[in-house]
C-alpha cells in the first residue's frame, strides 16, 4: 500500500475541516471567532469605519461580551472617530443601561444605579469636549439630563449654558434654545426666561421668526417688571421722565428686542445661500461633495471679508465637523488664526489636526514642522520631523527631503548628508523615487556645499543602480553642464554622460533615447568648437535611428525634462 505524502494528508484534512503537521499527526483547527476577526481587521486598518461599526454592533448584541470589552471597543473607536456624536450617545446609553443588566455569574447588576448614571454623564462630558461645536452632541447630553435623569434645574442650567456658549450661534441651534426655554418655563422662572428670549434674538437662527412669535406670546402674559428692570424702564422713558405709560413702555421694550431680531434676520438673509449649500452638518467618513466643499470656501471667504473674528471662528469650527478629513480646511484655519490671533492659536489648531483628526497623514506633519520652524521653534520642528520618519511614514521620500532641507537651513550639513543617505537606502527599491532623492541630494552637495566631487559620485552611484530613469540622466547632464570650469571640460564630461545613456545596454526606452540624441546633437552645436564633430554626431544619430526604426520627430518639453512626440503636439493644438 502506498504511503500518503504530507501534501496528500493536508489535502484530505482540508476537505474534512482538520489540519495535520508534516508527519501526518492531526491538529485541531483553531478558527477565529467573529469578534477576533473584526478586532484584527480594525487593528490592521484603524480607519476602516464600516468594520468598526460591525464590531460595535457585534459586541453590544452578544450578551456574553464582557463589559470591559464593550467599553474598550467604544473607547478605541471614538479615539479614531471622535466627531461621531451618535456613538458617544450610544456609549453613554450603554453605560446607563448597565444598572438593569445582570452579571454573567448572576451576582447582581453590572453597575448600581448611581454608578451607571455617573458613568453615562462622564461619557457625555467626553463627547461634548470632543465635539464641542456640535448642536446634536449637546442636545443628546441635555435631553439625557432633563428627560432621563430628571436632574434639578440647578444641575441642568449650567450644562445648557455651556451648550449655547459653544454652539448657540449655529443657525441650526434652534432645538437647543427651545430646550432652554422649556427648562425655564417648567421652572416657572419668568425673568430668566425673558433673558433667554433676548439672547435668542441675537442669534442668526434659521427659525428665528418662530422664536419671535413665541416671545410676543410670552410678553402678553408677563408683568412689566418681568420684561424690564426699573433701570431699563427708566432708560426707555422719553425726555428723562420718571414715570411712563405702561402700554408705551411695553411697546418700547418689544421694539427694542425686535430691532435686535431684525438685525439678526438680516444676518441670516445675507448668508442663506451659503447655508443652503451645506449638504451636511455632521461628520461622516464619506467625502463631502465638491459643490459643498467649494461652498464652504466661499462662505469662509465671505466671513473673513466681514472681519468678524467671532463669526469666522464659529464658521471654521462648523466646517471642521463635516470636513475634518480635509487638510486644506485645517491649513486654512491655521493661516487665519496665525494672521488674526498669532502663533499660540494657530499652533493649537495644528495640534488638534496632528494628534486627533489627521494623525496618520504625513503631509500635515510636514506642514506643521515648517510652521514651527518659521516661528523659530526648532526643537519642536525637529521632533515633528522625527515623528514622521520614525512612525507616521518612515519610508516617505518627501519627509526625508523636507527634513534634510530643515537641517540645511539651520546649518547642520553633516546631519543633512546623513539623512540623505538614509533616504536613498530606504527608497532603493523604488527607481523613480530613488532618482528624485538623488537629484535633491546632489543639488545640496553642489549648490549648498560646493562639493562637486561628492555630487558627481552620488550621480555615478545612482546611474549604476537605476539606469532606467530619464529624470536622473537629464539632471546628471544638467549638473555636468554647470559644474565644469572650462568649456573643454564641460563638453568632455557631458558627452561622456550622453554616450553612457545612449548605450544599447542602458534601460531607457527608445523614445527617451530618441529625445536624448536630439538633445545631444543640440548640446554639441551650442558648446562644441568643432563642426566636424557635430556632423559626425548627426551621422551617429541617423545610424541609431535606422538601426532601431525610430522615425519620430522630437518636440521639446524643456521645463519638465519629459520625453514627448508629435502626438503630444497634436493633442495640445487639436
UniProtKB/TrEMBL annotation:
Entry keyword annotation includes Transport: no
Primary location class: nucleus
GO cellular component terms attached to this protein's record: commitment complex; U1 snRNP; U2-type prespliceosome
Region (Disordered): 1-30
Subcellular localization: Nucleus
Keywords: mRNA processing, mRNA splicing, Nucleus, Repeat
GO molecular function: pre-mRNA 5'-splice site binding
Record-linked Pfam families: HAT_PRP39_C, HAT_PRP39_N
UniProt-listed GO biological process terms: mRNA 5'-splice site recognition
Family according to the record: Belongs to the PRP39 family.
Protein's UniProt name: Suppressor of forked domain-containing protein
Native source species: Phytophthora kernoviae 00238/432
Amino acid at each position: 500500500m502506498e504511503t500518503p505524502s504530507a501534501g496528500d494528508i493536508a489535502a484530505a484534512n482540508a476537505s474534512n475541516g482538520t489540519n495535520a503537521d508534516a508527519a501526518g499527526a492531526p491538529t485541531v483547527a483553531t478558527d477565529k471567532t467573529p469578534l477576533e476577526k473584526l478586532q484584527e481587521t480594525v487593528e490592521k486598518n484603524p480607519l476602516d469605519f464600516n468594520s468598526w461599526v460591525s464590531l460595535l454592533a457585534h459586541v453590544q448584541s452578544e450578551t456574553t461580551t464582557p463589559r470591559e470589552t464593550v467599553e474598550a471597543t467604544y473607547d478605541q473607536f471614538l479615539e479614531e472617530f471622535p466627531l461621531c456624536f451618535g456613538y458617544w450617545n450610544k456609549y453613554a446609553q450603554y453605560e446607563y443601561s448597565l444598572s438593569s443588566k445582570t452579571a454573567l455569574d448572576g451576582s447582581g447588576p453590572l453597575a448600581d444605579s448611581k454608578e451607571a448614571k455617573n458613568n453615562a454623564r462622564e461619557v457625555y462630558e467626553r463627547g461634548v469636549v470632543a465635539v464641542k461645536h456640535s448642536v446634536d452632541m449637546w442636545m443628546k447630553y441635555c435631553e439625557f439630563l432633563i428627560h432621563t435623569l430628571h436632574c434639578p434645574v440647578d444641575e441642568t442650567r449650567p450644562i445648557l449654558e455651556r451648550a449655547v456658549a459653544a454652539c448657540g450661534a449655529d443657525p441650526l441651534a434652534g432645538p437647543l434654545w427651545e430646550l432652554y426655554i422649556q427648562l425655564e418655563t417648567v421652572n416657572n422662572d419668568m425673568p430668566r426666561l425673558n433673558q433667554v428670549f433676548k439672547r435668542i434674538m441675537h442669534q442668526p437662527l434659521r427659525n428665528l421668526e418662530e422664536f419671535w412669535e413665541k416671545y410676543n406670546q410670552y410678553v402678553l402674559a408677563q408683568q412689566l417688571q418681568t420684561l424690564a428692570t426699573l433701570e431699563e424702564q427708566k432708560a426707555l422713558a422719553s425726555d428723562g421722565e420718571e414715570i411712563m405709560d405702561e402700554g408705551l413702555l411695553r411697546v418700547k421694550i418689544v421694539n427694542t428686542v425686535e430691532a435686535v431680531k431684525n438685525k439678526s434676520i438680516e444676518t441670516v438673509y445675507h448668508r442663506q445661500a451659503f447655508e443652503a449649500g451645506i449638504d451636511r452638518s455632521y461628520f461622516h467618513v464619506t467625502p463631502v461633495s465638491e459643490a459643498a466643499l467649494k461652498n464652504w470656501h466661499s462662505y469662509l471667504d465671505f466671513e473673513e471679508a466681514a472681519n468678524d473674528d467671532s463669526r469666522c471662528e464659529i464658521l471654521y469650527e462648523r466646517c471642521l465637523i463635516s470636513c475634518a478629513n480635509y487638510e486644506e480646511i485645517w491649513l486654512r484655519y491655521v493661516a487665519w488664526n496665525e494672521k488674526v490671533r498669532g502663533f499660540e492659536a494657530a499652533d493649537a489648531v495644528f495640534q488638534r489636526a496632528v494628534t486627533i483628526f489627521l494623525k496618520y497623514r504625513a503631509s500635515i506633519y510636514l506642514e506643521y514642522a515648517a510652521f514651527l520652524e518659521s516661528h523659530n521653534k526648532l526643537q519642536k520642528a525637529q521632533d515633528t520631523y522625527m515623528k514622521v520618519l520614525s512612525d507616521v511614514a518612515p519610508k516617505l521620500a518627501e519627509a526625508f527631503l523636507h527634513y534634510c532641507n530643515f537641517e540645511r537651513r539651520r546649518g547642520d550639513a553633516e546631519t543633512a548628508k546623513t539623512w540623505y543617505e538614509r533616504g536613498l537606502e530606504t527608497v532603493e527599491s523604488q527607481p523613480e523615487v530613488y532618482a528624485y532623492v538623488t537629484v535633491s541630494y546632489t543639488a545640496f552637495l553642489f549648490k549648498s556645499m560646493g562639493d562637486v566631487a561628492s555630487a558627481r559620485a552620488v550621480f555615478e552611484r545612482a546611474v549604476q543602480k537605476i539606469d532606467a530613469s530619464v529624470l536622473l540622466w537629464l539632471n546628471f547632464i544638467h549638473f555636468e553642464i554647470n559644474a565644469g570650469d572650462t568649456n573643454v571640460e564641460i563638453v568632455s564630461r557631458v558627452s561622456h554622460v550622453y554616450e553612457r545613456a545612449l548605450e544599447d545596454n542602458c534601460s531607457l526606452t527608445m523614445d527617451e533615447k530618441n529625445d536624448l540624441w536630439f538633445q545631444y546633437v543640440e548640446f554639441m552645436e551650442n558648446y562644441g568648437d568643432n563642426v566636424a564633430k557635430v556632423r559626425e554626431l548627426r551621422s551617429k544619430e541617423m545610424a541609431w535611428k535606422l538601426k532601431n526604426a525610430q522615425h519620430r520627430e522630437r518636440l521639446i518639453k524643456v521645463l519638465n525634462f519629459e520625453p514627448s512626440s508629435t502626438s503630444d503636439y497634436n493633442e495640445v493644438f487639436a
